[in-house]
Amino acid sequence: MSSDSAAPSAAAHKATHPFLFLVLFIPFGAVPGFLTVALAYELKKKGIDTGDIAILVGLSYICLLFRWVWAPLVDTLLTRKIWYVGSTLLCGLGLWLAGRAATGQHPSLVLINAALAMSTFMSTLLAMAVESLMAATIPDDKRGSAGGWSQAGNLGGQGLGGGLALWLVESCGLNESQSGAVLGLVCALCCLALRWVDDTRPLLKVEGHVEAAGHLGVAANLKAIGSDLWELLRSRIGILALMICLLPIGSGAAQNLWSPIAGEWHASADVVAFVTGAMSGVISAFGCLAGGWICDRIDRKVAYSLFGFGLAVVAVGMALCPRTSSQYVFWTSAYAFVVGLCYAAYCAVVLEAIGQTAAATKFSFMSAVSNTPIMVMTFVDGAANTRWGTNGMLWTDAWCGVIGIVVFALVAGATRRRATAAPSGLSPVH
Question: Label partner for 349 (CA 20 to 30 A): which of 35, 128, 291, 367?
Answer without folding.
Answer: 35
